[in-house]
């Protein structure tokens, strides 16, 4: 089975990037970019997070120290 082999491969060589890709696929999320509201640097929502009933991606704290960074999420069903 082709699908099974791919899954095994991904598990064996799991890196932060593939984890995010799997996360996106599992929850129908999409990595987005947005400007920092403070310094206009482009921020990427590529860090997976899970909270009560919510699955999403957020962007880490900006280099300028702005913690109000962009995020996307979906409700778990
Ligand atoms: Zn910034």
Polypeptide structure, described:
The chain has 77 residues and is α+β, with helices and mostly antiparallel strands. The protein has one domain (2-75). Helix content is 30%, strand content 27%. It is built from 2 helices and 5 strands; from the N terminus they run ααβββββ. A 3-stranded antiparallel beta sheet has the order 3-4-5, with helices on one face. β1 (33-35) and β2 (42-44) form a beta hairpin. It is globular and about 35 Å long. The two termini are 28 Å apart. Mean pLDDT is 81; it is low at 1-14. Zinc ion binds next to loops.
Give a brief rundown of this model.
This protein has 77 residues and is α+β, with helices and mostly antiparallel strands. It contains 2 helices and 5 strands, in the order H-H-E-E-E-E-E. The longest helix has 12 residues, at 16-27.
Defining key terms:
77 residues; three-stranded antiparallel beta sheet; two-stranded antiparallel sheet; disordered N terminus; binds zinc ion
Write the layout of secondary structure elements.
Layout: H1 2-12, H2 16-27, E1 33-35, E2 42-44, E3 47-51, E4 54-58, E5 71-75
Antiparallel strand pairs: 1-2, 3-4, 4-5
The chain binds zinc ion.
Q: How many DSSP H or I helices?
A: 2
Provide mean pLDDT, rounded: 81
Strand content: 25-35%
According to DSSP, the number of beta strands is 5
